[in-house]
Design brief:
By secondary structure, the chain is α+β, with helices and mostly antiparallel strands. 29% of the residues lie in helices and 35% in strands. It has five helices and seven strands; from the N terminus they run E-H-H-H-E-E-E-H-E-H-E-E. Bound molecules: coenzyme A (COA).
Length: 172
Amino acid sequence: MEIRLLDRRDASAYQALRLQALRESPHAFSASHEDEAGRSIDEVAARIVPAADGSACVSGIFEAGVLAGFVALVHLQRKKLRHGAELAGMYVAPAYRRRGLGAALLRAVIVHARSIDGVRQLGLGVNATNAAAQALYRSAGFVSWGVQPRALQIDGVFHDEEHLLLRFDAAG
Ligand SMILES: CC(C)(COP(=O)(O)OP(=O)(O)OC[C@H]1O[C@@H](n2cnc3c(N)ncnc32)[C@H](O)[C@@H]1OP(=O)(O)O)[C@@H](O)C(=O)NCCC(=O)NCCS
């Protein structure tokens, strides 16, 4: 197993797995398959290459050289927001689930977030009914601070989003 930041050479594999994620787990993402299906490989590459200002990057987890999962880390550069980072778009392909890949990817992105100068907490939003992801995040120490009612509307059905936070400095 290898975990590393994705770059331009990963664009095709990432786009294939991302579209699979949006098809297979529509309730887990705010983006829809229709939003992203038409993107060119150049557009995808531009989205996954680590931003020059450090505001976003995507980590991938590989098994035998095959991309099996990914997660994005967003670090907004505004001065008043720089103490926080956000995790987004976490996914492990069904064939690789329940083997510890999600937990390994999450550990790696937490280590990365902690290493960014000034970052003291990591937040994320998760569908309130997504038991697998909720369990994964809570086992890593994330705690809930609120629920946004009707955050997503998918095929006419509303879904609440739970907001979780992992504070690196529990005291303050
Ligand atoms: C959530 C997801 C990333 C977990 O990936 P994974 O590689 O299967 O996770 P792991 O094998 O590392 O499991 C880690 C922990 O997560 C929890 N977990 C994972 N899958 C679970 C499930 N189906 N039911 C309950 N808990 C689950 C467990 O606590 C597990 O620890 P354990 O195996 O010791 O019980 C994966 O199921 C996925 O991609 N789901 C669809 C997309 C999604 O929901 N993304 C999250 C968006 S916020």
